Amino acid sequence: QAQLVESGGGSVQAGGSLRLSCVASDYSYSRSYACMGWFRQAPGKEREGVASIDTDGTTWYANSVAGRFTISKDNAKNTLYLQMNSLKPEDTAMYYCVADRVLGYCSSPRASYWGQGTQVTVSS
Fold first, then answer.
1. Coil vs helix vs strand at 28
2. CB atoms within 10 A of CB 66
3. Which residues pair with 39 in a beta bridge?
4. How do residues 48-66 score in pLDDT, each as one tens digit?
5. CA-to-CA distance for 29 and 32, rounded, in angstroms?
6. How far apart (Å, rounded) are the C-alpha atoms in residues 29 and 24?
7. What is the spatial distance between Cα 120 and Cα 26, in angstroms, rounded to a whole number?
8. DSSP run (H or E) holding 30
9. Could you give the CA distance from residue 12 to residue 62 in angstroms, rounded to a whole number?
10. Burial 89-123 (b: 16+ CB within 10 A, else e)
11. Please, are residues 50 and 39 in contact by the beta-carbon 8 Å criterion?
């Protein structure tokens, strides 16, 4: 079974930075991923796509994070990253790592594989 394990969440003040990591621990699944990405969900709100990256390196960002967040992937380590700078209180949410075998699905709630999430809290 695909396993995506997130880490790196925490509490920071507005303007601060965090780096989230997601390890795809089962290589039999991860070698077939066409894309990986990050979603987030704040209390009382729907899940929203944050960023995604395809196997060819193409990236996508939500308008709300473009210019502040950077998604990257270390294939040798089977690890996905999300560098978050200039954090705002509205970035507070549970952040989820996602993956899929279909290009484009990692910016969509249709993504097949989801991690358990890591909490990010930004105080003003």
1. helix
2. 12
3. 49, 96
4. 999 999 999 999 999 999 9
5. 6
6. 8
7. 25
8. helix 27-30
9. 21
10. eebbbbbbbbbbeeeebbbeeebebbbebbebebe
11. yes
Residue 124 is encoded by which pair of tokens? 């003003």
Q: Do 100 and 34 contact (CB within 8 A), yes or no?
A: yes
What is the pairing mode between strands 35-41 and 69-74?
unpaired
The number of residues making up the chain comes to: 124
For residues 2 and 58, is the Cβ–Cβ distance under 8 A? no
Residues 20-52: pLDDT tens digits?
999 998 877 778 899 999 999 999 999 999 999
Q: Which residues pair with 60 in a beta bridge?
A: 52
| Rounded CA separation 12/100 (Å) | 30
* 76 phi/psi in degrees, rounded to 5: -65, -30
